[in-house]
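User: Hi! I'm working on a homework problem where we have to compare a predicted structure to a textbook description. Could you give me the structure for the chain below?
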Amino acid sequence: MDFTFTEEQQAAVEAAKAVFADVAPDGVPSPALTPEAVAEDFDRPLWAKLAASDLLGLVLAEEHGGAGLDAIALCLVLREAARVLARVPLLEHCATAMAVQAHGSPELAAALLPGAGRGTVVLTAAAHGRSGHDPAELAVAARREGPFWILDGVQTAVPWAHGADWIAVPAHAGEGEAVLALVPRTAEGLALAGQVSTSGERLAELALDGVRVPAAHLIDTPGAWERLHRLLATGTCALALGLGEQVLAMTGQYTGKREQFGFPVATFQAVAVQAADRYIDLRAMEATLWQAAWRLDTATGGAGGPLPVAGDVAVAKIWASEGVRRVVQTAQHLHGGFGADTDYPLHRYHAWAKQLELQLGPAAAHEEALGDLLAAHALA
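Assistant: Happy to help. Predicted structure tokens:
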């Protein structure tokens, strides 16, 4: 594969670096010191800067005021966001916007996408189902009633839902493909209950009781929800990669300065070997991420592989989940007691890493999915 990024993709990275340059990972209370959420809302000032830099419209077509870039560009920006633990719904917002752009009605696209690109409309997606382990589309039932669809069910751990304007909710309508409903947060019959993530961020349990959705706000294109889910999983891999790279850099800086027996601990063979193993993890995470993102961008254009694109996404998520866990564990070990100091940001990265490891399924769940794909597809 050619991993050379286009000029437009590289420009997006530079714009992201400029926006995130002044973001402090410890800008909110530590999740280790409060049982509640670290903040009631996401970082609105940072969100405004992303909008002003045109990064919220990165994946939107020019007709909607966007740059017309792809999933690879989005993952590059997400990688930079994770380095500073940026508290914004960038992944969910952009992924949902891509789904609306690709499959939504003209009425829905006109209502959401211009504002999404400007940051005045915030989007998120419910992707964890009732328990976080069952398929999200089975947690909500949808039935047609005249010009409306009626939604009933529960979705858990919806990220940034309290600050979002619209929520993409997958549902089942009996037999056939899952549908995807775009529901305003203030819709009658929709209730949000507060939850707190491992990283300390505010999540929501979404209860839908007879929520009425106009037919134009429901996407029933076959495969639309599956494509959105794969993009969310791939974006999670990008976040894990950026976080892991920052943690390894922090570890290198610390062990290069910390001395024992008159020498920096980074010069000790046992320390160097552990750091080298984690570097290998990060490179594997990177290779599998770009493979998955490339397949997402090219699957509809006929670019194939030995397995469906879901296989590449599963491989990327397996590496991301296992790799980011090993990176933060090694970092904590090599930092010694200093790694547990709540005045030092490493413990925040550890909490975020655990959240990303389990988000949209741990490695074991994706290994099972990959096994099913391998059993169903003969490899040449």
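For your comparison, note the following. The chain is about 50% helix and 15% strand. The first strand starts at residue 123 and ends at 125. Good luck with the assignment!
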